[in-house]
Amino acid sequence: MHELSITQSVVDEVLSRAGSRRVHAVRLQVGALTAVVPASLEFCFDLVAAGTVVEGARLEIDVTPARAACRACGVSFDLPDPVLLCACGSADVSVLAGRELKIVSMEVG
């Protein structure tokens, strides 16, 4: 489960920014193509945050849908699954969105 190491990295970064201030919420942006399971992140978050100023914080996850553009026909389209294939049959596509994995914000107090 790579979500555990990802969550550990998120909490480490939040701790480095929060200092001694209590963290009330952390918002992440996770792309649909990252192969990260949001429910697993949520499960790991409570485990990793235990005993820190992040303990008890809300984890808010925004999933970014996958989107691509076809270089062959010029059409932009949503990707319903990780198969990078345009309706025209071309696999020559450029991913526009869906690979994000970032901390968007944190609420401290």
UniProtKB/TrEMBL annotation:
The keyword Zinc applies. This is Hydrogenase maturation factor HypA. Zn(2+) binds at C70, C73, C86, C88. Involved in the maturation of [NiFe] hydrogenases. Required for nickel insertion into the metal center of the hydrogenase. Belongs to the HypA/HybF family. The gene is hypA. Keywords: Metal-binding, Nickel, Zinc. Ni(2+) binds at H2. InterPro entries: Hydgase_Ni_incorp_HypA/HybF_CS, HypA/HybF. The lineage of its organism: Bacteria, Bacillati, Actinomycetota, Actinomycetes, Micromonosporales.
